[in-house]
Amino acid sequence: MTVHGRRALVTAGSSGLGAAIATSLRANGAEVFITGTGPHTGEVAREIGATGWAIADFTEPGAAATAAAAARETLGGIDILVSNTGGTRAAPASVLTAQDWDTAYRLLLDSAISLTNAVLPAMTATGWGRLIYVTSVGVVKPLPLLHLSNVMRAGVAALARSLAAEVAPDGVTTHVIAPAHIDTPRRRTLAAARATAAGVPTEELERRQLATELPVGRWGRPEEIGELVAYLCSEHAGFQTGQTHVVDGGMTST
């Protein structure tokens, strides 16, 4: 499953799924450049052996393109893009503001478009590339309180599917990762929000989720997402493209 010698940009790579993906790509031989929004980004980059890193807030205009340029300069090119972001506000639709929607658009959809535009021409010119978009299971089954994510990430998934046939002849493949219930700080934050909305303790809500939403009976591990991405970026997955990979412990099968 080697990606030895490939150059990867992993956004939001300083924590959660992004860090797990960056770690897996690095362990499988890729050079990695990560972005993050906090001062710990550099520390994480050093821990995983990343070649470089940058602070980038994708809600700011131009931030995604600037991060891609920094990664390209550091790595000498980008063969793999893992477009990943933090989460959006969890709230009932009735309280969401125009600013909430605008921020979600810039964070999730606009950043994916900007990053793609920044890396795709060189990929098609060299005849090889991987475009990986980390979304959420909300792209196949909308999740409660996550209207911003459900809508904007659906656009990201559409981007990946729209590009698939167009760029495949140039050796570039596209994939959507649609996870749910992966044990990250984001999962725990969302569980707390749902528990508050339901008026129950978080521990009780989590027990219900494990019993009724997850046939496998456990939370997913971030490294399981990381290894999936490493596989999709390897030569072994060269015949796969335009797919949405649901990683949810059986949640959407029930």
What integer value in Å does the Rg equal? Answer: 18 Å
Can you summarize the main beta sheet? 7 strands, parallel
One letter per element, helices H and strands E, the order comes to EHEHEHEHEHEHHHE
Structural class: alpha/beta
What is the overall silhouette? globular
Q: Order of strands across the widest beta sheet?
A: 3-2-1-4-5-6-7
What's the tally of helices? 8
**Helix share, percent:** 40-55%
Cα(first) to Cα(last) distance is 31 Å
Total DSSP E strands: 7
Relative strand content: 5-15%
Spans where pLDDT lies below 50 across 5 or more residues: none
> What's the mean pLDDT score?
96
Structure description:
The protein has helices spanning 16-27, 41-48, 63-75, 98-126, 147-167, 185-198, 202-212, 222-232; strands at 7-10, 31-36, 52-55, 80-83, 129-134, 172-179, 243-247. With 254 residues, it is of the alpha/beta class. The protein is globular, with a radius of gyration of 18 Å. It contains eight helices and seven strands.
Protein traits:
254 residues, alpha/beta, 7-stranded parallel beta sheet, 8 helices, 47% helix, 15% strand
Q: What are the SSEs and their pairings?
A:
Layout lengths: L6 E4 L5 H12 L3 E6 L4 H8 L3 E4 L7 H13 L4 E4 L14 H29 L2 E6 L12 H21 L4 E8 L5 H14 L3 H11 L9 H11 L10 E5 L7
